[in-house]
Amino acid sequence: MAQAIVARRDGDAFQARLFWGRAARLLDPHGHVRRVGFESGPGGFDDIWVEYEPGHGPLDPDGSPLGRVHMQCKWHVSPGAYGHAALVDPEFINAKSRSLLQRAREAQIAYAPDGRGIRFQLTTNWGVDHRDALRPMIASRSAALVAARLFEGKTDRSQQGQVRKLWRDHLAIDDQELRRLAQTLAFGQVPDSLDALREQLDLVFRLVGLRSVPLSESGFVYDDVVFQWLAQGRLEFDRPSFRAACAKENLIGPAAGGPKIYGVKSFEHPFDRLEERCDEVLSLVQHFDDRFIRGQADWSTVLYPELRTFLSAAATESPQLRLALDAHVTLAFAAGSVLDIKSGRRVEIEQRTLERRIWSADDADVDPNWPHLAFEWTEMNPTGQDFAVAVGLTHDIEAAVRRQVEDHANIRGLLSCRPVGGAGARAIVCGAHASVLAEAVVAEARTRRLAGGRIHLFIAGPNAFSFLLGQRRVAMGPTTLYEFDFEGARTGAYAASLSLPIDPSEQRRG
């Protein structure tokens, strides 16, 4: 009995903290959230909804901005995963008769009959099973179901066809109706713990002017107050009514006078949109099909020039700035190359590790006990001038990189860089540690560099590390970066992305 009570309270806290993460944006004078609702809206997707200013909502898979996102929150006590069949099973959402898919269909008919403008999203701490046919149909960053992928298989015997048939039969609809429904669906995962969600809220609250609750306190008033509002019938909020409600509960506090936050994104984070908490955002999402760039030449002809213009303008405004990078490793490195160590700017990075942290090169005193890097050189073609560098911080990429470069005639060897003690999500302690490791990679790479040669750089690590390494790009010399198809959606291998420097005169100086 006690365990059931704890599970229920944790589920309520999960829903409440997701609500506050969105509702707090109503206090941001530069934000684009227009209204937020709690326990209201279409049945089955009424836990939370967010309405955006016209033209400023997250993008659907076709690149059109959404007007609203309706969320159904589901908390699981133990780890797990689900597949496409669970969506037709009422027990999956603790219901007796109507499945999640049936509820989504009813909501779509009522709110988005043409399948456009609104998203219905299951938000849970479980993820879609990577072995299930549904998994490759979901955009990896926006969490939206890509209808075109659902309809790739031509027959009911295909993998996609089996999903379509199960859903069609369950809903008693045809393919055209199923496509309209699919265009509105999303399946998001929140892997963070409840404590991590609370820490993230603390950062948001400080920025928008809500009272912070010390992490050392067991109670968290925000978990309870939203349900008190629910009992009072206050279910929907716009900017004025939300501020008034927070003021009445004595929740309004001073807004932090921290650095201006600049966001760069090449994909949409499913829950934490940069436009909702950054002062300015450079969106490059339109140049990508999920994680894959639409035009290979765009790395150097479009993306890098736009990034350089955006960050150069940011650097002229303040000697201190903060970057939020929901972007490919290539763009994180490129950002560092723009705001390099000679830029005279102190840069903080919002780093997503197991939870969000603020990293900078000077955020801690250097500790000699931090894990350092082990370097291994593998000779390949002694006549080559270039060499490859594989930096495996979060996971070991040496074997994958070796397969990528072993047949390149001009690559004479591979330098593998691994943390002593093994790669992993906690291999880097903080920004200062990342800076030390970046320095070590550059120093080792310089000992291998030949005049006229180029480094082929592969990174598996936090974007903050990639940024700090990019700040030292000139010392590394000419560099080509690579992106990996982690989910095996196309090649399952690496592909070259951006080569720096783009300016030949800079290459002569490097």
Can you describe this structure?
It is a single chain. The chain is an alpha/beta fold. The chain is built from 15 helices and 21 strands. The chain has a six-stranded mixed beta sheet, sandwiched between helices. The protein has a six-stranded mixed beta sheet with strand order 16-18-17-19-20-21, sandwiched between helices. Strand 13 (320-326), helix 10 (329-338) and strand 14 (346-352) form a beta-alpha-beta unit.
Q: Describe the sheet with the most strands.
A: 6 strands, mixed
The largest beta-sheet arranges its strands as: 7-5-3-2-1-8
In whole angstroms, how far apart are the ends? 67 Å
Low-confidence regions: 506-510
Describe this structure in a few short sentences:
With 510 residues, the chain is α/β, with parallel strands linked by helices. It has 15 helices and 21 strands. It is globular.
Q: What order do the helices and strands come in, and which of them pair?
A:
Elements: H1 2-23, E1 33-38, E2 48-52, E3 68-74, E4 81-82, H2 100-111, E5 118-124, E6 127-128, H3 147-150, H4 159-171, H5 175-182, E7 185-189, H6 194-208, H7 221-231, E8 236-238, H8 239-248, E9 260-265, E10 280-283, E11 288-289, E12 292-293, H9 298-317, E13 320-326, H10 329-338, E14 346-352, E15 356-359, E16 373-379, E17 386-392, H11 398-405, E18 411-419, H12 431-448, E19 455-460, H13 463-470, H14 473-476, E20 479-484, E21 494-500, H15 504-509
Parallel strand pairs: 3-5, 4-6, 5-7, 9-10, 9-13, 13-14, 17-18, 17-19, 19-20
Antiparallel strand pairs: 1-2, 1-8, 2-3, 11-12, 14-15, 16-18, 20-21
Helix pairs in contact: 1-6, 1-7, 9-10, 10-13, 12-13
